[in-house]
Amino acid sequence: MRKTGSGETEVRESVDQLIERALRDAVAKTKRNTLRHGDRFPYITEEQRYDWRDSNDEWIEGFYAGLAWLGFECERDAALGDAARRLTARLVERMEANRAMGHHDIGFLYSLSTKAEWIVDGACASRDRTVQAADVLMQRWRTGGRFLQAWGEEGHAEHGGRIIIDCLMNLPLLFWASESTGNPRYREVAETQAARSLKYLMRGDGSSYHTFRFDPVTGEPIRGETHQGYRDGSTWARGQAWAVYGFALVHRYTGERRYLDAAVRAAAYFLSRLPDDGVAHWDFDAAKDGLDNRDSSASAIALCGLLELGQLLEEHAPERESFRQASERLMRALIVSCSTLDDPDAEGLLRHGAYNVLAGKGPDDYMIWGDYFYVEALMRVARGVPGYWYERKREV
Q1: Is 200 exposed, middle or buried (CB count within 10 Å of its CB: 0-12, 13-18, 19+)?
Q2: Which of 347, 244, 326, 248 is nearest to 36 (CA)?
Q3: Are 340 and 365 in contact (CB under 8 A)?
């Protein structure tokens, strides 16, 4: 807390108190959900609620396990710890059965479940399961094209040559596996994917494509496109947020300056396109005639990226102070404008998330990944816990 004047100190204290209150509320709701719904997972609806079902083999399930792990770290509540372990076990069962594993989002599923369990509990079996998950992700590597294919089987007519910017957040699983096992192959694949993402998904003004197509056999670049954005040349807000956080994490693992610079440029672009209230539009270029949806989950992801950059940037970096101020602005915006702090009966944590607006899928609702990144941001600020994307120093 800076103490340049009594007024400023008072404002900072009120922000700290708001964050603490929001964190405790989020953890309490997460605990209530785990007690009420057992081992079921929340799925997206268009009805301002979650649909609680048994594991449905989607890419989003790891975020709920991650929420339980964050809640356990926050309160050391035994019930939350038990819930986190049970949810993680369900995802291990899914991997062992090889159900719906043919996509790149293995990092979202297992960085926030088995790797979280390894980081928090130190269970060697969880470490081994996380390496196993990295092996599953390595099956997405296409030797000819030299990229991790996002969706579909090899040679798929629609997706055979496609990468997407979301995959940056799955690369920490491979970097971690390389460090954990000493096998350089995981890192080689992650570095190649990161370099291709930087070259082809990032545009010169700091904005990003959601997806890019290559010739699946030769790897020759074809064109940038979108899958969930407004149009191929627009900037889908959640994809831009993945760029902020993803490139920052790639820099943490590699130390390469170009990835830090890319994260800074992506963050500057994201912040330059935010409306005054700090909650991102779902696509920064979407027409405002009936498609003016917000995406609080994009702001939550970008907030975590800004907080990560605050740890990575040098003290003298010109962006450091502006990003610190921006992170406070985004945090307050999420708590005040989007959180369910004012609704004790809500099961979701962040309102006004957007899944796929043009498809009409969750255009204005709770998003479980938005809830996860919201709580990760709160935990970063209030407890110094940075989530589960990289190892922390263990207490001796």
Answers
A1: buried
A2: 347
A3: no
The predicted model gives 336-359 an average pLDDT of 96
- Give the pLDDT confidence score for residue 394 in this predicted structure: 60
Q: Rounded to the nearest 5 degrees, what angle is found at the Cα of 94, between the Cα atoms of 88 and 97?
A: 145
Report which secondary-structure segment, H or E, holds 375: helix 368-383
Give the CA radius of gyration of the chain: 20
Give the chain's end-to-end CA distance (angstroms, integer).
29
> Is 277 among the catalytic positions?
no
Find tokens 């609080």 and name the residue: 296
What does the alpha-carbon distance between residue 254 and residue 234 come to, in Å, rounded to a whole number? 29
Selection from 190, 93, 99 nearest residue 140 by Cα: 190
Amino acid of residue 138:
M
Which of 25, 77, 105, 371 is catalytic? The answer is 105
Given the residues 166, 283, 295, 365, the one annotated as active site: 166
Alpha carbon distance 15, 36 (integer Å): 31
Residue 395's pLDDT is what?
54
Distance between CA 52 and CA 42 in Å, rounded? 5
Q: CA–CA separation, 175 vs 337, rounded Å? A: 36
Give 388's contacts (C-beta < 8 A, 6+ positions apart). Answer: 66, 69, 111, 112, 115, 116, 119
Cα-based angle 211, 214, 219 (whole degrees, multiple of 5): 140
Rounded to whole angstroms, the Cα distance separating 318 from 279 reads 24
Work out the pLDDT band at 7, boundaries 50, 70, 90. Answer: very low
Residue scoring higher pLDDT (392 or 81): 81
Model-wide pTM > 0.85: yes
Distance CA 323, CA 303 (A): 9
396 CB neighbour count, 10 Å cutoff: 3
pLDDT band, very low/low/confident/very high, at 3 (cuts 50, 70, 90): very low
**DSSP output for 263-283:** HHHHHHHHHHT--TTS--BSB
116-136: per-residue pLDDT in tens? 999 999 999 999 999 999 999
Residue with tokens 């209530």: 32
Active site residue 345: no
- Other residues' Cβ atoms within 10 Å of the Cβ of residue 35: 11
